[in-house]
Specification:
The chain is α+β, with helices and mostly antiparallel strands. Helices cover 24% and strands 41% of the residues.
Length: 153
């Protein structure tokens, strides 16, 4: 299966919604925002999309460049395309952007209980830190763990 990655354009926005819904449905089984914690971000980010040969959007990711690091977040892949190399393609695209911009590393935060640590380690990312999350909890109110991961370039 051939996957292409590029920056999203306005006409993509409606077609990204199924990817968002698929990711949200999976993640909400593992963690939810802690009650009373607002989601505030005034950081500009770029939205990437991953498309199949027939232009179906099957993945998405946001990134921003801070200092000499590129941070990615809001990764989502349609459930039926998980495990088929979509994230790897997105990550390769992020590596190219990072190198073009003279970045030293690629970083992200994830929730340990999602299993993303294993996925991210397959592209060479390592755990840089781990702590109980103040922003998120399990659906029944239990503790989940935020993990900072990175890869030096």
């Amino acid at each position: 299966m051939k996957i292409n990655v590029r920056e999203a354009v306005e006409r993509d926005l409606e077609n990204i919604l199924p990817v968002n819904a698929s990711a949200r449905e999976t993640l909400r089984k593992v963690y939810v925002r802690t009650e009373g914690v607002a989601q505030i971000s005034n950081e500009a980010s770029v939205l990437l999309v991953a498309l199949t040969e027939d232009r179906k959007i099957v993945g998405r990711c946001e990134y921003s460049i801070r200092d000499k690091d590129i941070y990615f977040s809001s990764l989502g892949v349609l459930e039926e395309f998980r495990g088929r190399g979509v994230f790897r393609k997105i990550f390769l695209y992020l590596e190219a952007i990072a190198q073009e911009n003279g970045c030293c590393s690629i970083l992200c935060e994830t929730i340990a209980e999602t299993g993303n640590e294993l996925v991210f380690s397959k592209v060479g990312m390592i755990v840089l830190g781990r702590s109980a999350s103040a922003k998120y909890c399990s659906p029944n109110g239990g503790v989940v763990h935020q993990v900072l991961m990175g890869k030096k370039l």
